[in-house]
UniProtKB/TrEMBL annotation:
Gene3D superfamilies (UniProt xref): 6.10.140.2220
PANTHER family given in the database record: GH20023P
MF (Gene Ontology): zinc ion binding
Record keywords, A-Z: Metal-binding, Zinc, Zinc-finger
UniProt keyword annotation of Metal-binding present: yes
SUPFAM superfamilies: HIT/MYND zinc finger-like
Transmembrane segments: none
Name of the protein this chain belongs to: 4786_t:CDS:1
Record InterPro entries: Mss51-like_C, Znf_MYND
MYND-type domain: residues covered: 22-65
Stored Pfam families: MSS51_C (PF20179), zf-MYND (PF01753)
Amino acid sequence: MTSKEEELKKRKTYLQIAGTACSNCRKTGAEVGIKALLRCTRCRMSCYCSRECQKADFSFHKHLCAAVKELSEFEEAWYSCNEQESEWNKRNIYHMQLLTEALDRELNNYERNAWLHQPKCHVCFRTTRDLQNQSPLIPCPECKVTFCCSSEHWEKHREKHQSLCKIYQLMINCERIRYQDTSETLWAPEEWDANAIYPPLPKDWNGYFKWRKNSQFIHLDALCGVITNNLSLPLTILSALERFYVRSKLRSLEDLTIHIIGASQYEIFALMTFEEIMHVLPKIKTVRIIMVGFELPGQNHGIDLQCCSRCTNSGRKRICAFYPMAYHEYGSSSDYTAPHVSAGFNTGLYEDDTELWKPTIEFLLDKETPCVFTSYSKEEATQDVKILKSWGAKVIVGAKENKWKSTMPLVEPQGTDKFYYNNFYRTLLQGRV
């Protein structure tokens, strides 16, 4: 099994976390022809369609399972949330601290998501563990990932949920596409309208799909959402290049170097779509993508990536290099080459490791590197801009909605019925004021 397949297998979907899909094969009870899934008797969290699937998942499940069992026996940890979402969030954080102690290590992304998104009543925030006799929560029959503890609470919540259920269903359908057969749907068709010369880019996703001769995807919301989630990265970069360089310069470029700052699995999984840059810029012969970030798997100085037949026949190349380090450390190394643009996606600059970002930002400002940063929300983008300006950055576009944002909804882990989208807002900066 490849490392990507392993990562995708460990990643639990919302249906799996909700207990309405098998924790191993991701199929629901209806899909395998059984009335109810088998629930793990020790942790009561993971569910399976068969004993075989339970055994197959055991190597991924066993450590968290034991920690959850230990937590479940700690009665003092299950204090009442008093129907307050803020108390629910505080208790969740406390529980994750206890799980970390039980595991003797930090929770990984999959374990953290499973705990943050565990089923709860959307009115009183009680889990099955909080209910007398551990009564089952009642799921929405449509989306199957939203719960209430009783018919009375469903009556209170139903009106609000009706306006959001379609978004939950879209989210679930996107996940079905992304994790079907342990692979993600990538965007790699080889046809586009050669009569349309870009830049400028089309005005929106509909125009883009029309240019790519795949306008039928516009009517398939889930598939479109998955596609835009990946394509959002290269299209956001292209739109930034349009702002930083004159059109004639872009159309004549033969070599392009892009730096991805704080790169992680999101950027790696979307790597195939960066070929779109060569499809949009007609003269490009070589695109160099330098990914820098602590979460990268290992260092390499550049490997050739496969291209579509049209680009291959035209002698085009994509080269990608990984540097698992801070960006300013890479900038101080002999491997550093100045980019045409640097991009940081969903950086969380103002709330996560702000001080670690400061030397990287200062390096970029000193080099007068054209930069584009994205954020999940306007609030985050606004806070990012405040910090960037406090460090002396010359902000060219500040906290503006990105027309090339992802259309695939993601659930806010510490909010009820709140969604966010990758690269929803963008900020452009270059040099100092």
